[in-house]
Known about the structure:
single chain, about 100 residues, mainly beta, 5-stranded mixed β-barrel, two-stranded antiparallel ribbon, 7 strands, elongated
Amino acid sequence: MLLGRVTGTLVASRKDEGLAGQTLLVVQNLGIDGEDSGGYVVAVDSVGAGDGDVVLYASGSSARQTLATRDKPCDAVVMAIVDNWQVGAQQVYRKTAADGPWAS
């Protein structure tokens, strides 16, 4: 699993039938410190993530293990929206009400 932040959506008017109805998100890679670690990935959204959400995503063959992506032609899937994380005693990230409608 990898950490990322949703930075946008991708619309493809023509795509494989297996991706019909799937939302595609542009996800910026994050390091364990919460900072940009370089690079982006396009991932199928299986959890209803939105712009600005910090998410966990899987890539490679693991991306085809969710109900939304099983046997579909995808290489990355967003499978969790992060509420908070800490490293050691340091709080790195905590979702707030300003982060979206699902924030705690």
